[in-house]
């Protein structure tokens, strides 16, 4: 169980690489009303809700309150977990111009990819300040802890490009932001456009019109773009087989994945992998592409 702070309002855990895996649960019992932030510094984490979502190294996940989830931290992973009761939400998001954005961020499950530099330079110093505030029992000031959580959330939504939305929040912008977050969570499951329309509670024609009007692409093209970004990243950097990569992207049949990939790039996955295997790519500072790299 995570460290109990300020009664039952805040819970914090710094999980260091170890020999045993650990499991945390949200959305039930004493954690039913907890929002949870997770920052994966090393290894990866599995978040099980209706389905299993893999959160990779240098990534951040947000689980809203009342969302029943199981967070599995395997041996060797280094993860920071920070939970706070929804009762503190008004203190965390405050009431200024950013409040609506922070509220939007914490009302849905999301995964945000970052870089090593982002995590080490921006988030770890804040997490250590939270840890210091908690460890020193004579401090534990609720206002300070809520302020630090707020700064963490601001950093997350900036990485998620939520700050690129105008403060007036046009209907199109809100739909596109919600669609992008859903795709980021679900693209490995090969969801249909109809699935996203149902989740957004709108017709296909409306979603298609919004995507075309703002991004000049159809919803299916945007979904395929996200799958392709992940596929090319895995083929460039991973030693996994084509079948393993295909399975991780929701393709049971590697030939179906190969057909999709060749249609999008003009090369088969094997040709693409061989091409990059001949190069010595050593740029460790290269940013991982995610949904924010959509046009």
Description of the molecule:
The protein has 295 residues and is an alpha+beta fold. 45% of the residues lie in helices and 18% in strands. It contains eleven helices and ten strands. It has a six-stranded antiparallel β-sheet. β5 (45-48) and β6 (52-55) form a beta hairpin. α3 runs antiparallel to α4 (142-159). The longest helix has 20 residues, at 116-135. The radius of gyration is 20 Å and the shape is globular. Mean pLDDT is 83; it is low at 163-169 and 280-295.
Mean pLDDT: 83
Order of helices and strands: EEEEEEEEEHHEHHHHHHHHH
Number of helices: 11
Low-confidence runs of at least 5 consecutive residues: 163-169, 280-295
Largest sheet: spatial strand order: 1-2-9-4-7-10
- Structural class by sheet pairing and helices: alpha+beta
State Rg.
20 Å
Quick summary:
The chain is α+β, with helices and mostly antiparallel strands. The chain is built from 11 helices and 10 strands.
Supply the key terms.
alpha+beta; single chain; globular; four-stranded antiparallel beta sheet; 295 residues; disordered C terminus
Describe the secondary structure blueprint for this structure.
Elements lengths: L2 E3 L4 E6 L6 E5 L7 E9 L2 E4 L3 E4 L3 E5 L5 E5 L4 E8 L3 H5 L5 H7 L4 E4 L2 H20 L6 H18 L11 H16 L6 H8 L3 H12 L3 H19 L4 H7 L5 H12 L3 H9 L18
Antiparallel strand pairs: 1-2, 2-9, 3-8, 4-7, 4-9, 5-6, 5-8, 7-10
Helix pairs in contact: 3-4
């Amino acid at each position: 169980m995570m460290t109990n702070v300020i009664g039952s309002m805040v819970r914090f855990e710094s999980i260091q690489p170890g020999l045993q895996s650990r499991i945390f649960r949200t959305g039930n019992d004493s954690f039913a009303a907890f929002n949870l932030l997770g920052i994966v510094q090393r290894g990866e984490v599995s978040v099980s809700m209706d389905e299993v979502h893999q959160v990779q190294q240098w990534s951040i996940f947000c689980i809203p309150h009342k969302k029943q989830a199981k967070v599995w931290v395997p041996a060797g992973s280094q993860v920071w977990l920070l939970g706070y009761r929804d009762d503190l939400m008004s203190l965390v998001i405050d009431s200024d111009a950013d409040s609506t954005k922070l509220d939007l961020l914490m009302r849905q499950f999301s995964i945000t990819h970052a870089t090593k530099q982002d995590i080490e330079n921006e988030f770890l110093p804040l997490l250590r300040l939270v840890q210091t505030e908690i460890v020193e029992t004579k401090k534990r000031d609720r206002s300070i802890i809520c302020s630090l959580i707020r700064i963490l959330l601001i950093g997350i939504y900036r990485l998620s490009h939520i700050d690129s939305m105008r403060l007036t929040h046009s209907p199109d912008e809100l739909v596109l932001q919600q669609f992008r977050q859903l795709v980021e969570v679900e693209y490995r499951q090969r969801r249909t456009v109809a699935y996203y329309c149902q989740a957004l509670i709108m017709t296909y024609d409306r979603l298609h019109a919004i995507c075309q009007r703002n991004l000049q692409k159809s919803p299916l093209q945007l979904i395929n773009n996200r799958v392709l970004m992940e596929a090319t990243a895995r083929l460039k950097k991973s030693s996994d087989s084509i079948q393993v990569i295909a399975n991780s992207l929701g393709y049971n049949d590697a030939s179906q994945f190969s057909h999709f990939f060749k249609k999008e790039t003009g090369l088969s996955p094997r040709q693409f992998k061989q091409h990059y295997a001949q190069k010595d790519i050593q740029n460790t500072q290269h940013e991982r592409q995610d949904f924010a790299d959509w046009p």
